[in-house]
Design brief:
The complex is a heterodimer of chains A (696) and B (115).
Chain A: H1 2-26, H2 33-57, H3 66-99, H4 107-136, H5 141-160, H6 164-168, H7 182-199, H8 210-236, H9 245-272, H10 276-298, H11 302-317, E1 321-327, E2 334-340, H12 344-349, H13 357-365, E3 369-371, H14 381-386, E4 392-400, E5 403-412, H15 420-466, E6 477-484, E7 492-500, E8 503-511, H16 515-535, H17 539-553, E9 560-568, E10 573-579, E11 584-587, E12 595-597, H18 610-615, E13 618-622, E14 628-632, H19 634-637, H20 648-659, H21 664-679, E15 688-695
Chain B: E1 5-11, E2 14-23, H1 28-40, E3 45-56, H2 58-73, E4 77-81, H3 85-93, H4 96-99, E5 101-103, H5 106-114
Parallel strand pairs in B: 2-3, 3-4, 4-5
Antiparallel strand pairs in B: 1-2
The chains are: A alpha+beta (696), B alpha/beta (115).
């Protein structure tokens, strides 16, 4: 594409230069003059033809930059006019010479005429490009074709001027008026018609604001007479015509086109002036809406957003003051959240309420309220009493689906400050504002949620750190354990205490409830158990002390189920107490059936003393070779599948019996596999913990 | 998941709460609310009928623990009846039968209050 446009620019230039060079060298020779003129005209015609796509397609200025186009046009016209005035005397003399058949021989004259031809060509191309930009600002289906036709007509007209007949009559040609022939008249008529048609494309005036329109008006007033004068003079004394008929007529037509276009544009501008203020206002309203929409995507801080809303609302309605009242997201009370041009005392003294008569009116009507004569008796009486210089009031309810979440007010210090148009506008604006406010609230909520999740994650990690990192190594006994937490942090807990060389304390527990509170209690239980285990080796005594301590510290309603046992490795005996926890599954030999060990006991934290102490029983079981024990929390038997069935004690017993002769590690793995195969991807709701103890 | 329901029936100074469905950490606040309402109205003789309850978690059990002290100091009590064996097992494991009167039938609970 680029190379083509370069080519289309280069070729006309080359042709033009070639024509000039040929002229310079051969002009003296009388014999060649006619042929030379003919060649020159042809070259220039081709050059013009080739620059047509240049004008048509090439971008001269950026599309929407109307002001820049206008400015360059202004200076170009002014400059050309002055230049023409300056060289007019010389031109007159020069033309007179031509008329007297004195041929342009002097080099100075020749350079003068060539410069004019060159300058005028550049001038014409720039003018055409700029006008094209103006015309194409608002493109319609026919814009292209009509402009294209005009170009073709101009070139055709210029080309026809250089027919051999005209060339031979060269001497008489300088005055266009002297050229006769119906063909030309008709062609000229059609061309000018097309110019007029194209000149009605002046929609760029819409892009100017009121100030710019007024500026353009004054510039036009100055420029138009100059342009008329120039066009008139140019049609009388055309400095390019002696050099080339084609180029001369082409430039002449461009000058006419420019004049027609400017005249019509000026008239259109005049027509636009009275509505400029209204138009300006509409534009500003639209741009405010646009601005707000942009804010929505960028602003997630409520404090800044409400300020933006109030400022833009004041701009949209040209209000003296503006304020926004929103329902508090916590208690739903109405609150003035942002204001423009209100005194601090006024802000503080405003007691916004949904019960106010105007609020009630808007809640019922769900439409904007417009009052151009605020009095102390109308619906807005509360506002009038609050702010005495409020004479015109515009208020809109902010609606989220059917709920009113607040109100946006605009006020003026004079009566009849608002129009219905303002009310419509503020309503449209408020709809955008509501979206922005709601978005910001949602973002805030989701941020809070995210932070909570992050905190839960930290709590979960902390909880995991409370569990033993590795299993104690003991001769003749294998140990393994697992704690799988549900999505949230939970209250499951297990631990081992190496009490002496041959004694090991084992604890498993579950704090009631779920979530962070359960995890905190679990940490507390761990602390208490760790401290007591060092002092007290008897499980029953230890649990009694633990209950006493924890009962005082736990919330009523929170309790802990625990099993604490001590493994005597030398004697191969496991003695334990069950404080309300799930029973222990026990297999005494490789062939024996599973037993459920369930000595009496009560959950820790349920009772402060006697009942707990009386109920608690201690039991001992031997841990010989092939003996196997399973301590678990209720999360194991309450694990549910998608059909909402529980894993249950029976399935657990069955699964345990199947694997009890394997190593502790294998038993753990198989049980986890069995449980998770059963729940089959259903969401776990509770922690799942168990300990396997195996005699070897 | 089954929903949790509490149905309240007042008879003289006795109030019966019939529980149904699923009582866990998420639904426990509903039960808490129901009991708190009874206390606010000055009704401290409460029978909880577990006939239709299918599941109770530790958080559900905790609800009773949270109120029992206040109720007993005010001269009232919570008596429990009609537990399915599964629900009773949860209470039993934790040693609740030593702390609460758990009876087979609601009428028995009523007569215990009278006696």
């Amino acid at each position: 594409m680029k190379s083509i446009s370069k080519f289309s620019l280069m070729l006309p230039m080359v042709l033009f230069i070639a024509a000039s060079v040929a002229d310079t060298h051969l002009y003296d020779e009388e014999a060649h003059r006619f042929a030379l003129s003919y060649i020159r005209e042809s070259f220039i015609f081709i050059a013009l033809l080739m620059s047509l796509p240049l004008v048509y397609k090439q971008k001269w200025t950026s599309d929407r930059n109307v002001l820049r186009g206008l400015r360059s046009l202004f200076f170009l016209i002014l400059f050309t006019y002055l230049l023409y005035l300056y060289s007019r005397n010389r031109l007159g003399e020069f033309i007179a010479n031509i008329q007297k058949s004195e041929i342009v021989q002097q080099t100075a004259n020749y350079i003068f005429i060539l410069s004019w031809a060159f300058f005028a060509s550049v001038y014409a191309l720039i003018i055409l490009g700029t006008l094209r930009n103006f015309i194409f600002i608002k493109r319609r289906k026919r814009t292209f074709s009509q402009f294209g036709w005009l170009m073709v007509l101009i070139i055709l007209y210029a080309g026809l001027r250089a027919t051999p007949i005209n060339l031979s009559l060269q001497v008489e040609i300088p005055f266009i008026s002297s050229v006769s022939g119906t063909t030309f008249q008709v062609l000229r008529f059609i061309t000018i018609n097309f110019m007029v048609i194209n000149s009605f494309r002046v929609s760029w005036i819409n892009f100017l604001n009121k100030k710019q329109k007024i500026l353009c008006f004054w510039c036009g007033l100055l420029l138009l007479p100059l342009q008329y004068h120039f066009a008139f003079m140019f049609s009388r004394v055309n400095p390019v015509l002696p050099y080339s008929l084609v180029l001369g007529s082409f430039i002449e037509l461009v000058v006419i086109f420019l004049t027609v276009y400017l005249s019509i544009a000026f008239l259109a501008l005049l027509a636009h002036l009275p509505t400029a203020r209204l138009y300006d206002r509409k534009m500003r309203q639209i741009s405010s809406l646009h601005h707000l929409t942009r804010e929505i995507s960028g602003e997630f801080e409520m404090e800044k957003l409400v300020v933006t809303i109030v400022n833009l609302a004041a701009e949209v309605t040209e209000a003296d003051f503006c304020w926004l009242e929103l329902a508090d997201s916590r208690d739903g009370s109405l609150e003035l959240v942002s204001a423009k041009n209100l005194l601090k005392s006024e802000r503080l003294s405003r007691l916004a309420s949904f019960d106010e008569s105007l609020s009630q009116w808007m809640i019922r009507q769900r439409t904007p309220y417009l009052d151009n004569q605020v009095t102390k008796t109308g619906p807005a009486k509360d506002l009038f009493l609050w702010k005495s210089d409020l004479f015109s009031l515009l208020a809109v309810p902010l609606l989220v689906s059917e709920n009113v979440i607040g109100f946006l007010y605009a006020g003026r210090k004079e009566e009849f400050g608002f129009e219905q148009d303002d009310a419509d506008m503020l309503q449209a604006f408020s709809q955008q504002a509501v979206i922005a406010v709601e978005n910001t609230r949602l973002v805030k909520e989701s941020l809070i949620k995210e932070r909570l999740e992050q905190e839960l994650k930290i709590a979960h990690e902390a909880q995991m750190k409370l569990l033993p990192k590795e299993m104690p190594k003991i001769s003749d006994i294998e140990l393994d354990a697992v704690c799988i937490t549900a999505n949230e942090v939970g209250g499951d807990y297990y631990d081992f205490f190496e009490l002496a060389v041959d004694r090991l304390g084992i604890v498993i527990g579950d704090v009631s409830g779920k979530g962070p509170s359960a995890a905190f209690y679990m940490a507390e239980v761990k602390g208490v158990m760790e401290a007591l285990a060092k002092e007290e080796h008897d499980p029953k005594k230890l649990l009694k002390s633990a209950n006493l301590t924890l009962y005082q510290n736990l919330d009523r309603g929170t309790f802990v189920s625990l099993i604490y046992g001590v493994m005597d490795i030398k004697q191969q005996v496991f003695s334990f107490c069950r404080a309300g926890h799930c029973p222990i599954l026990y297999c005494s030999t490789a062939d024996a059936n599973c037993q459920s060990l369930e000595p009496k006991g009560m959950g820790i934290g349920l009772d402060g003393g006697p009942a707990f102490d009386q109920l608690l029983e201690q039991t001992s079981v031997p841990i010989k070779k092939d003996c196997c024990l399973l301590l678990y929390t209720d999360g194991v038997i309450e694990a549910r599948n998608r059909q909402f069935e529980e894993f249950g004690e029976q399935r657990l017993v069955k699964a345990f019996r199947k694997v009890k002769n394997l190593s502790a590690r294998e038993i753990k793995k198989k049980l986890i596999y069995d449980i998770f195969t059963f729940i089959d991807g259903a969401n776990a709701t509770d922690d799942l913990t168990f300990i396997v103890i195996k005699g070897v | 998941m089954e929903k949790f329901v509490v149905q309240r029936i007042d008879k003289n100074d006795l109030s019966t709460l019939c529980l149904g469905g699923f009582l866990d950490a998420h639904t426990a606040p509903n039960l808490e609310e129901a009991i708190q309402k009874l206390l606010d109205e000055g009704r401290f003789k409460i029978i909880v009928n577990f006939k239709d309850l299918t599941y109770i978690s530790s958080a559900g059990l905790g609800v009773f623990m949270g109120f029992i002290e206040e109720i007993r100091t005010k001269g009232g009590d919570i008596k429990m009846s009609n537990m399915t064996s599964k629900i009773f097992r949860v209470f039993d494991l934790l040693g609740f039968p030593t702390l609460y009167e758990i009876v087979d039938d609601e009428s028995e609970a009523i007569s215990r209050f009278k006696g």
